[in-house]
Design brief:
12 helices; alpha/beta
Length: 325
């Protein structure tokens, strides 16, 4: 089979190499999956750089989120078990963690439903307890993680303010359903959010960016508001001023979605059921901006790493039987 392999750490476009390899052999409790679509995530870039919290042995195949097919023909969503990731014709996954792919979504959309939407659901509902009628501020609202949070916020009945970088991404954020869109390159984010909320600020802030975005979050969060820290796509990890949280009376909530697989796996299943229902009635639908063949995976991961994509980029292998997955 063909698979992308990383033999040394570095930038994705430099260290990912497409090679002919043997199909991986499942271990105890694992299954072999025919990859129908693999979704590109920012952690794939971090894996290539050796900066992710999980560091698989070299060489490895990146690709942490797929829609695959089991040997008995079931279409499933999975997080591949590294080092046998999803940017390949076949991947390995833990059998107990497989989730049924929603019928309402095609392969690329189904592959993109898992990490970003589960993170959004846990962040907004489990951690921040977002309520209908509240205001949600989403940083990087046109990106893969942010776009999921925007849709989930609208589905929950919130007013959604999306922060983006540039007019193209602003247009995408509007299409996603943002009630207010702020272009951080052309506007003062803090002033724009305060104007949009009548000076009150946002009840919930969803921040996958960190750095300067977190500084803006602290300045725009409302009384009794909640800032959900999801990641640091900017590369800068902020150091919150706890005296500021005390004076303004807001909460800082961390979210590491992957922990739920070991701490409370039943909640992951419950979340998937909720997401499947939302997808069935059209309340959420992953924005897949690009669908590329397997040989385009390295370039796709690099573009996601560079922050120039919108929504999700899906890799679609063409298998040896000639069928596109």
């Amino acid at each position: 089979m063909q698979a992308w392999r990383v033999h040394e750490n570095g930038e994705p476009s430099e260290v990912m190499r497409l090679a002919e390899t043997e199909r991986p052999v499942p271990g105890d409790g694992q299954v072999l999956l025919r990859v129908r679509a693999a979704n590109v995530n920012f952690p794939d870039a971090l894996l290539c750089r050796g900066q992710y919290q999980v560091r698989p042995p070299l060489p490895f195949t990146p690709g942490v989120e797929i829609c695959g097919e089991t040997e008995d023909g079931r279409r499933v969503i999975a997080n591949p078990a590294l080092p046998y990731g999803g940017f390949a014709e076949y991947a390995i996954a833990d059998a107990a963690a497989l989730l049924p792919a929603p019928e309402a979504l095609d392969d690329a959309e189904a592959a993109a439903l898992h990490i970003g939407y589960q993170t959004g659901w846990f962040g907004l509902h489990r951690r921040a307890r977002l309520e209908a009628g509240e205001t949600l501020l989403v940083h990087a609202a046109a990106g893969g993680v942010g776009s999921a949070a925007v849709q989930l916020g609208k589905a929950a009945g919130a007013t959604v303010i999306g922060v983006v970088g540039g007019p193209d991404k602003a247009a995408v954020a509007r299409e996603l359903g943002c009630d207010v869109v702020v272009d951080r390159r052309a506007e003062d984010v803090v002033a724009a959010v305060k104007e949009a909320t009548g000076g009150r600020g946002a009840d919930v802030v969803y921040d996958p960016v960190g750095g300067a975005a977190y500084t803006q979050s602290a300045k725009t969060v409302a009384f009794e508001g909640r800032i959900v820290v999801v990641g640091f796509a900017s590369g800068a990890v902020p150091s919150p001023a706890l005296n500021h949280a005390l004076v303004k009376n807001y909460s800082i909530l961390g979210l590491h979605w992957g922990l739920y697989h070991t701490k409370n796996p039943k909640l992951v299943q419950h979340c998937h059921e909720q997401l499947t229902e939302l997808a069935a009635r059209g309340a959420i639908k992953p924005l897949v901006s690009e669908r590329v063949p397997l040989d385009g995976a390295a370039s796709a991961v690099q573009r996601v790493a560079d922050g120039v994509t919108t929504g999700r980029v899906a890799v679609l292998p063409v298998h040896r039987d000639g069928a596109a997955a």
